[in-house]
């Protein structure tokens, strides 16, 4: 079993408020705060669907069964004592490490998926029904799954 924790998150969202407003053809500022929140939420949901980080993040993994964790790894930082050949373990036998991961440029289909998630969440924000929302979601989830790997953060 392992645990993944984001130590440092994105400095900026991969999709801007201006891009979302253009995508949604909104030219007023009444909902800017809501849209900004929806952008973060949509990016997090999309990252979960793809298993990818959409920008530079520092991630820590702790556990005793971390074989199979993959991703766009830039550098691994040990945070517990070195025991042998690139593996670190604490007193409980857990293996701990940190790494930088994330796209330097998010692929356009994923940016569109984020904007579609924002638009859908905005339209159905009052939670009247989930059926139309789920139908719309299936279209961009299919795009996101093309980027999915076994497991990465």
The percent range for strand residues is 15-25%
The residue ranges in which pLDDT falls below 50 over 5 or more consecutive positions are 66-75, 80-87
The tally of beta strands, per DSSP, is: 6
Shape: globular
Helical stretch tally? 4
Largest sheet: 4 strands, antiparallel
Q: What does the radius of gyration come to?
A: 18 Å
Q: Helical residue percent? A: 25-40%
Q: What's the rounded overall pLDDT mean?
A: 76
Listing every helix as H and every strand as E from the N terminus to the C terminus, the arrangement reads EHHEEEEEHH
Structural class: alpha+beta
Please give the alpha-carbon distance between the first and last residues. 16 Å
Major sheet: order of its strands?
1-2-6-3
Task: Give structural notes.
The protein is an alpha+beta fold and 153 residues long. It has four helices and six strands, in the order E-H-H-E-E-E-E-E-H-H. Strands 1-2-6-3 form a four-stranded antiparallel beta sheet, with no helix packed on it. The protein has a two-stranded antiparallel ribbon with strand order 4-5. Strand 4 (82-84) and strand 5 (87-88) form a beta hairpin. Helix 2 packs across helix 3 (108-123) and helix 3 packs antiparallel against helix 4 (131-145). The protein is globular, with a radius of gyration of 18 Å.
